[in-house]
Structures are given as C-alpha cells and as structure tokens.
Amino acid sequence: MGLSTATPPDQDQNQELVTKVACPRCEQLVTASIPDREVDPTVSSYVAAFGDHSIVHCPNGHKFWVYYC
After folding, report:
1. Number of domains in the chain
2. Which residues pair with 30 in a beta bridge?
3. In which domain of life is the source organism classified (predicted)?
C-alpha cells in the first residue's frame, strides 16, 4: 500500500479533490484525483477487474493505479 494524504479543496466548489500517493516502484510522491473526502485511496502496481480507480504516472515514467475504497 502506498502513502496517501488528502488535501482539502480550496473554497471554490469547482476545485478538484486531490491526494498525494507514493509510486509503488520508486516511492516518488504524486498528486492523484479523488472523488470525495470519504474515500481511502489504495495504490496498486496492477490493474484490477473492477472498482473505481485512477491511472497515475509518476515523474520517473512508472504507471500505477489508485483505487478508492
């Protein structure tokens, strides 16, 4: 599991919610979108067959998935 920290949105309701997650290969922190504050982001090196997720790329070129539980 990767590190994640939710960042509160700005006062503007149109702001996207984001969190910082660590790349599972190099531990580089990357910003990832989250659908709402109630989710618990889980980082995976592999794609799952189901579940809400985002595809994230770190600055070192690694591709990984962030799932929302």
Report:
1. 1
2. 21
3. Archaea
Output b/e per residue, 1-33; b: 16+ Cβ within 10 A: ebebebeeeeeeeeeeebbebbbbeeeeebebe
**Which two tokens mark 38?**
């109630």
Which carries the bigger pLDDT value, residue 35 or residue 15? 35
d(C-alpha 29, C-alpha 55), whole Å: 14
Which residues, 6+ apart, have CB-to-CB distance to 6 below 8 Å?
A: 17, 19, 34, 37
Beta carbons within 10 angstroms of residue 64's beta carbon: 23
What is the domain range of residue 61?
A: 4-68
pLDDT at site 51: 84
pTM of the entire predicted model: 0.71
